[in-house]
Amino acid sequence: AGVTDKDILNDAKTTGDVLSYGMGPRGQRFSPLDTLNTKNVKKMHPVWAFSLGGEKQRGQESQPLVHDGVMFVTGSYSRIYAIDVKTGDELWQYEARLPDGIMPCCDVINRGAALYDDLVIFGTLDAILVALDQKTGKVKWRKKMGDYKAGYSFTAAPMIVKGKVITGISGGEFGIVGKVEARDAKTGELVWTRPTVEGHMGYLNGKENGITGGEANKTWTGDLWKTGGAATWLGGTYDPDQDLIFMGTGNPAPWNSHLRPGDNLYSSSRLAIDPDTGEIKWHFQTTPHDGWDFDGVNELIAFDYKSKGKTVKAAATADRNGYFYVLNRENGDFIRGFPFVSGITWASGLNDDGTPIYTETGRPGDPSESENGEKGKTVFSVPSFLGGKNWMPMAYSEDTGLFYVPSNEWGMDIWNEPVSYKKGAAYLGSGFTIKSVFEDHIGSLKAVDPKTGETVWEYKNGAPLWGGVLATAGNLVFTGTPEGYLMGFDAKTGEIVYKFNTGSGIVGSPITWEMDGEQYLSVLSGWGGAVPLWGGEVAKRVKDINQGGTVWTFKLPRS
Ligand SMILES: O=C(O)c1cc(C(=O)O)c2c(n1)C(=O)C(=O)c1cc(C(=O)O)[nH]c1-2
Ligand SMILES: [Ca+2]
């Protein structure tokens, strides 16, 4: 049967399927399944593996979906596969034909698809949204989201909210203008557009809706708002309680912050958006006047907790800038924030309203103040621009009340250079070299208590962690490592309870579901993403990791 809005709203509770990226609209990535638990997980073994093939494919960042006996998996080079979940047999495969000039900043990647009615919907690297028939793989509609020649691309999983397919866009490193869009999921017809740089007009049903989201030059300088970035490149989550879409925005363009004095709204922010009109209901900017490419796209996850007998409607996010934020999701007010990585240099802490207290020496220098005007003062910054945490999603366990955060401890030398905007060219005005800060590890999976800021346990990993996390009612937490291991942990103590080598680095997000009374787990293996491209000496450390491209599916032996 076709996937309905109700099915998607219930996704986190229905254990027989996985219908959405995030395993439910809130994106908690928590499964109520407990067949698999800390006692029996050791016996879990692969039941099938499926090769994604293709020499052009690299970082397999996708999260699979499961519906009606079929698994839908996107491959990094704008491919999608329908697989029989029982056998691993291929049912159909679709390969988008990509033009030569695509400009993804951070590897050829795709994080997943969305399901609605009898359609499976995904975006391609040249910024086209494609809807296919779930049964046949035939294209039902195709829509252009942005001009790839101007640097627009697409890497995220689309999201379904109230019959609409909600998408962001990539391209912050090319001076595009970020936006959130809603289309009728059945036809692909555009319903609204909400640009994420202050000053740009929104559209509703083909007409300017009069909402500019602020004045053009209030938080920007000169014409820079016209090419201001703030790409919504990770997509979002949806909170049915407040009927709000939460969408993060990326770095202001260019990276060189001296060229654009001001807060540069709505870059490096979390936005709460009305799904019916595209109006921004509230915003919370984690890094005003971002000068480090910290972005602000990381997932904002709705959760409730009790405080003094009252239920707090909160939402949490682990930002690239190294701080973990707990917000009031009704209005965006700051509740608390704390560092989740060590040695942050660019800020000494957060003010009562959650804005950062900048350090004097944390921001790279202005090139116009250097002797020849060519290169500003270099500073060492922690975290690096790849972040205390990047796109790889954390999980929230309703049982333990903890967030499981795939974090990284690293820094960078960063400096600024002069730059001017040219359509379709990189627009950074910065250079950088990433460096590790600890001898023995970069990656760090942390169990974080959102009420106290305490790290309850930590697992240290040699290479940077770049895969998503899954938590289950079986007291288990799963993630993958670049070294190739699918790892299972005791959710309460952090004890390693499972380890399986998948043959290539894992940068995908694991899922779990149940079929014929048995609990299954699937994850993609296939090394890639931003680390091997931009990781400097850190990338050298991981240079021997072989590429791959396999969907692995596991379960317990039949008892
Ligand atoms: O500003 C942007 O538009 C943009 C897009 C993307 C992307 O679409 O993957 C990344 C980034 N920025 C980015 O800053 C970043 O660190 C990054 C890492 C990755 C990845 O998949 O490994 N993508 C991106
Ligand atoms: Ca970016």
CATH superfamily: Quinoprotein alcohol dehydrogenase-like superfamily
The name CATH uses for the topology is: Methanol Dehydrogenase, Chain A
Radius of gyration (Å): 22 Å
Largest sheet: 6 strands, antiparallel
Beta-strand content estimate: 35-45%
Helical amount among residues, as a percent range? under 10%
The CATH architecture is: 8 Propeller
Poorly predicted sequence stretches spanning 5 or more consecutive residues: none
Biggest sheet: strands side by side, in what order? 11-12-13-14-15-16
Q: What ions, cofactors and ligands are bound?
A: pyrroloquinoline quinone, calcium ion
Q: Please count the beta strands (DSSP E, at least 2 residues each).
A: 40
Keywords: Calcium, Disulfide bond, Metal-binding, Oxidoreductase, Periplasm, PQQ, Signal
InterPro entries: ADHI, PQQ_b-propeller_rpt, PQQ_MeOH/EtOH_DH, PQQ_rpt_dom, Quinoprotein_ADH-like_sf, Quinoprotein_DH_CS
Main location: periplasm
Subcellular location: Periplasm
Write the layout of secondary structure elements.
Elements: H1 5-9, E1 30-31, E2 45-51, E3 65-67, E4 70-75, E5 79-84, E6 90-95, E7 114-116, E8 119-123, E9 128-133, E10 139-144, E11 159-161, E12 164-167, E13 179-184, E14 190-195, E15 203-204, E16 207-208, E17 236-239, E18 244-248, E19 269-273, E20 280-285, E21 301-307, E22 310-318, E23 323-328, E24 334-339, E25 347-350, E26 356-358, E27 379-381, E28 395-396, E29 403-408, E30 410-416, E31 430-436, E32 443-448, E33 455-461, E34 470-472, E35 476-480, E36 485-490, E37 496-501, E38 511-515, E39 518-525, H2 530-534, H3 536-541, E40 550-555
Parallel strand pairs: 1-34
Antiparallel strand pairs: 2-40, 3-4, 4-5, 5-6, 7-8, 8-9, 9-10, 11-12, 12-13, 13-14, 14-15, 15-16, 17-18, 18-19, 19-20, 21-22, 22-23, 23-24, 25-26, 27-30, 28-29, 29-32, 30-31, 32-33, 34-35, 35-36, 36-37, 38-39, 39-40
Bound molecules: pyrroloquinoline quinone and calcium ion (CA).
